[in-house]
Design a protein that fits this description.
This is DUF3303 domain-containing protein. With 96 residues, the chain is of the alpha+beta class. Helices cover 44% and strands 30% of the residues. It has one domain. It has helices at 11-19, 23-34, 62-73, 85-93, and strands at 2-8, 38-44, 47-55, 76-81. Strands 2-3-1-4 form a four-stranded antiparallel β-sheet, covered by helices on one side. The longest helix is centred in the N-terminal third of the chain and has 12 residues, at 23-34.
Length: 96
């Protein structure tokens, strides 16, 4: 299932990860686990935020993806099912 992973980083933990050089490694670990079709980085609610779009093979993959962000970045982590335009058209066609 296509999902959007949103990681909102805790500011203090993010600052520490930048200063000690671990932020790029942590984010690369997330990228390696998700193999995203797209990823974007911005701010939301005043926090560094990543939006990562990927195929979630199954719910049992969630802990391996989320736990490093929880433990190392004190991030707020959200998994949201999403559709692209083809998915939307297919879903709308099923409405009859």
């Amino acid at each position: 299932m296509r999902c959007m992973l949103k990681l909102e980083l805790d500011t203090e933990a993010g600052n520490k990860a930048i200063s000690d050089g671990t932020l790029p490694k942590i984010m690369q670990e997330v990228m390696d686990k998700t193999k995203p079709e797209a990823s974007y980085f911005s701010t939301e609610s005043g926090c560094r935020t990543a939006f990562i779009f990927f195929d979630l093979a199954g719910p049992s993959d969630i802990p391996a993806i989320a736990e490093p962000a929880f433990a190392q970045l004190h991030a707020r982590v959200t998994f949201t099912p999403v559709m692209n335009s083809d998915d939307l058209q297919k879903g709308l066609a099923q409405l009859g």
